[in-house]
Design brief:
heterodimer, A: alpha/beta, six-stranded mixed beta sheet, four-stranded antiparallel beta sheet, B: alpha+beta, Alpha-Beta Plaits, 67% helix, 8% strand, binds adenosine-5'-triphosphate, binds magnesium ion
Chain lengths: 247, 304
């Protein structure tokens, strides 16, 4: 579903690449965690999938398409196939829960009838039935994130990207969000989630891709937040970095 | 659905930036009024040209008592001198350029003068012998005036040769300058309008960046994201253009048609309804103005 082929992303020639020759593949229906220290390139990875930015070198494939070859007027079509959720929810403050979710359907031209039918369904999936008419500020953080997830999946994308979706939430609420993401994944959506939340990663036992300084340090199925096999790159001996990475 | 959505967005946008929208309306209104005025002056010039050019004549004025030019040294033009001029007018050198000519005696001249200044007290103090008699020559091609001038200006008994067309040309050149000034002011105002529209759209895009950000992420097309902004500018500009057309029409109606045309009955003036053909032009200009400046702005501030 997502394939990176020797992808390098350089924002600024003077600093090290944000992503450095990354090659990996995430299959249809998979659930993958993207972990790593701050600045390791997780958000950059997600931005490349969305064609928010272009790879400096290498090729990014999404659903079999080389995203570099997608012309600008077909980028919206690519994005309709991808849902996105952020740490800061990004809801529209003056729209109700229902209207926030419906907005994602209106702007791509879905009919009123389909919107009225689909939105309550999706709100039920994320556990928000009965809260359709609340405004975002009348919801808890966890509930707001559920609205954001509902909006991301309401157009039934094949891929859901989540950039630290539990970053602002307490552990119990986070677990609730993870249940929702897991449910969406089990319905067939490929989920890629960037996170710092070790408890959640350890709890879920999914594939873990660990980045450090833009390279893949580890890529394990059914893994924990920290590696079960200690990875200590030669260059890091004595620098203290390995201790931090193995936190 | 998408149409309803876009219309809703436009409505919201217009309400949000009322003061900016009003200023866009005003600045397009003023600039397009100047454009329309320039257009109206050009129409008036053409109207007058059409009306006058086949009426204008070259006038060969004969000497009177008070004439001072060297060709009038022998006093008022004699019958012999008149005969001579008539012969010249019918000669092979001149005839091909002339469609017709007529003699206007001093009595005729007084009659025409009285008609022309019917309401003026000056009429009573003018007598026939103060006005020169003249030959009125209609030319095949009015531009060939020089031939008559060369032939007659040195002829004894002729005081002066006057090309009425040149008098009109002077008037037209004044009107042309006025319309150029109007176009110049319009040009400056249009630059203001473009900058103002660009600023308005930038502010509007900034105040709606949350919405547009989400629209991008969920895959809304470029048209759905950008059209509300473009149309906001276009609607404001169209309102400005309609106001400008109305103003130009009102000037044509109340100033030209009702006032000037009554004051100067023997001159051809444009009618108010003729000016209405400028309206589509002003509308198109307004739309282009807003459309182009908003597309340029959006390319920079609302990338998809
Ligand atoms: N738009 C940008 N312009 C320049 N440099 C950038 C830009 N975005 C990210 N970077 C740099 O690229 C590197 C990777 O950033 P990225 O945002 O992908 O990290 P991250 O793993 O998501 O970090 P965090 O966990 O803090 O969100 C960082 O060194 C960052 O400074
Ligand atoms: Mg990040």
């Amino acid at each position: 579903m997502i394939r990176f082929d020797n992808v390098t992303k350089i924002y600024d020639q003077k600093t090290r690449p944000a992503l450095d020759s990354i090659s990996l593949e995430i299959d249809r229906g998979e659930f993958a965690f993207l972990v790593g220290a701050s600045g390791s390139g997780k958000s950059t990875f997600l931005r490349l999938v969305l064609k928010e930015d272009h790879a400096t070198r290498g090729v990014v494939y999404v659903a079999g398409q080389n995203v570099a070859k997608i012309s600008s007027w077909r980028v919206p079509k690519l994005r309709r196939g991808i849902g996105v959720v952020f740490q800061d929810f990004r809801l529209l403050p003056n729209k109700t829960v229902f209207a926030n979710v419906a907005f994602a359907m209106q702007v791509i031209g879905k009919s009123r009838g389909i919107i009225r039918e689909t939105v309550p369904e999706v709100l039920k999936t994320v556990g928000l039935e009965g809260k359709e008419n609340r405004l975002p500020h009348e919801l808890s953080g966890g509930e707001q994130q559920r609205v954001a997830i509902a909006r991301a999946v309401v157009n039934k994308p094949g891929i859901l990207l989540a950039d630290e979706p539990t970053g602002n939430l307490d552990p119990t609420t986070s677990l609730g969000i993870m249940k929702v993401l897991d449910k969406i994944n089990r319905n067939g959506t490929t989920v890629v989630m960037a996170t710092h939340d070790d408890d959640i990663v350890n709890e879920m036992r999914k594939r873990v891709i660990e980045l450090r300084n833009g390279v893949v340090l580890r890529d394990e199925a059914k893994a924990l937040y920290t590696s079960m096999i200690p990875v200590i790159p030669a260059a890091d001996f004595g620098s203290g970095l390995s201790a931090e990475a193995n936190k | 659905m998408r149409v309803a959505f876009i219309l809703g967005e436009i409505g919201g946008g217009l309400r949000r930036n009322v003061s900016m929208v009003v200023s866009v309306i005003l600045v397009t209104f003023v600039s397009l009024t100047f454009v329309g005025t320039a257009g109206m002056l050009q129409m008036q010039i053409n109207q007058m040209k059409g009306y006058w050019y086949d009426k204008v004549q070259v006038a060969v004025f004969l000497c009177v008592d008070t004439s001072t030019s060297p060709t009038c040294a022998s006093g008022p033009a004699t019958d012999e001198q008149k005969k001579n001029i008539e012969t010249l007018l019918d000669s092979a050198a001149v005839k091909p350029y002339v469609t017709s000519w007529a003699y206007e005696s001093q009595a005729d001249a007084l009659k025409h003068f009285k008609e022309q200044f019917a309401n003026s007290p000056i009429v009573d103090s003018v007598t026939a012998d103060q006005l020169p008699a003249s030959f009125r020559v209609n030319m095949v091609n009015p531009e060939k005036y020089q031939i008559i001038n060369e032939t007659f200006s040195a002829t004894p008994g002729v005081e002066t040769v006057i090309d009425q067309r040149q008098l009109l040309e002077k008037l037209f050149s004044v009107m042309n300058i006025a319309s150029l000034v109007a176009v110049g002011i319009a040009g400056l105002m249009i630059i203001c309008a473009i900058l103002l529209i660009a600023t308005t759209i930038r502010l509007s895009a900034f105040s709606r960046r949350r919405e547009t950000g989400i629209m991008r992420l969920v895959g809304a097309s470029k048209a759905v994201i950008q059209l509300p902004f473009v149309l906001e500018g276009v609607i404001a500009a169209v309102i400005g253009a309609v106001l400008a057309s109305g103003t130009v029409w009102a000037v044509a109606k109340f100033f030209i048609q009702d006032y000037l045309a009554n004051q100067y009955k023997d001159t051809a003036f444009i009618s108010a309804n003729q000016v209405l053909i400028l309206t589509p032009g002003l509308l198109v200009l307004g739309i282009l103005l807003a459309g182009i400046s908003s597309l340029l702005t959006l390319r920079k501030y609302l990338k998809v």
